[in-house]
Write a structure and sequence with these properties.
globular; 68% helix; mainly alpha; 1% strand; 14 helices
């Protein structure tokens, strides 16, 4: 026998559901004001010769100017070099430190986590001032003093096009790993102890446990940190702006710094908006590729 379908009743928000939607509404309003609206505005401005009063529609001229600008492509290459040199090494350092912290007692783990996370809380400007002191080209510079012990002469680390990028990379290697360390450590603590017990019964060494248990179990965490690390490195601005200003000879001009300069130094808001959307497309494409080829065997 066939049954006649009853008309669906309209759902009404009652009780706790109403409070839930109210909280979501607050988040959506904040998202719309500070994320969605700026993105839509940037998209519109990218087709304009922007002026505070009376902008002019110019079509794809800003995009043509962007793709024809040699400095834009140089900034892309600089950002790629910075990303390739910092993200994998940063993940390795964070993973190694998390492995070293894992066997410690909980209180001692908390002490080390606080120590490594402290730079993330400190002001980026203050950290840059410290690194400017380290890279001081004078003999009084900390790095130059250290190298003088080994008979290496002074170097103008931030003022030479051959060492400026390496200086920013070195700064990244030796700082800002606190968040990744804590996330790795949390993932390590979440691995079931029965895996290690079974491996010990089979006589597995530390390296075999690391290779066959730890690394496979940390694939979702590693993928997450890799994707967010690449996104963050492509958006890097503060280090280049405060340490080198993009110089010398644009050797450290990153895409984020170029966009900032075009918008707030040269007041080319339309071109800066076009460059920011191109950057967003590049980041989205790289993230898609990472999930496509590295997320196949990842289980969440």
């Amino acid at each position: 026998m066939t049954q006649i379908a009853k008309p669906m009743k309209k759902r009404r928000i009652k009780g706790d559901s109403g409070y839930g939607y109210a909280f979501i509404a607050v988040a959506l309003v904040v998202f719309a004001m500070f994320t969605a609206y700026p993105v839509v505005s940037a998209f519109i401005i990218s087709f304009q010769k922007y002026k505070p009063l009376g902008s002019e529609y110019i079509g794809f001229a800003n995009y043509a100017e962007t793709f024809g600008d040699s400095l834009f492509w140089k900034s892309i290459v600089n950002t790629l070099v910075y990303t390739v040199l910092t993200v994998p090494v940063g993940l390795f350092i964070s993973f190694a430190v998390a492995i070293l912290i894992l066997p410690l007692r909980k209180k001692l783990q908390s002490v080390f986590k606080a120590i490594y996370y402290l730079p993330a809380v400190a002001s980026g400007v203050a950290l840059s001032v410290v690194w400017l002191w380290i890279f001081d080209p004078m003999p009084s510079g900390i790095l130059n003093q250290l190298l003088n012990v080994f008979g290496i002469s002074n170097s103008n680390w931030l003022g030479s096009s051959s060492t400026a990028m390496f200086s920013l990379v070195l700064m990244s290697w030796l700082s800002s790993h606190g968040t990744s360390i804590i996330i790795f450590l949390a993932a390590l603590l979440g691995i079931d102890e029965s895996y290690y017990e079974a491996a010990e019964l089979d006589g597995a060494s530390f390296m075999k446990k690391l290779w066959y248990i730890v690394i496979p179990c940390l694939k979702p965490t590693t993928l997450f940190l890799l994707v967010t690390g690449v996104i963050g490195s492509f958006q890097v601005f503060q280090n280049a702006f405060l340490m080198t200003g993009g110089g010398p000879d644009n050797a450290t001009t990153m895409v984020g710094l170029l966009i900032f300069n075009n918008a707030f130094k040269y007041f080319e808001f339309g071109e800066a908006a076009a460059q920011s959307l191109v950057l967003a497309f590049i980041i989205a494409s790289i993230s898609f590729i990472q999930f496509k080829f590295m997320g196949k065997e990842v289980e969440y």
